[in-house]
Amino acid sequence: RPAKKSKSISARPPRRRRADGRMVGWVSLAASVLVIAGLVWGVVVLAGQHRAADARQAREQRCVDTASQTVVNMYSYTQETIDESVTRFVNGTSGPLRSKFGSENVEFLKQLYRKTNATSEAVINGAALEGIDNVSDNASVLVAVRVTVADIDGVNKPSEPYRLRVIVHQDERGQMTAYDLMYPNGGN
Question: Which pTM does this prediction carry?
Answer without folding.
Answer: 0.73
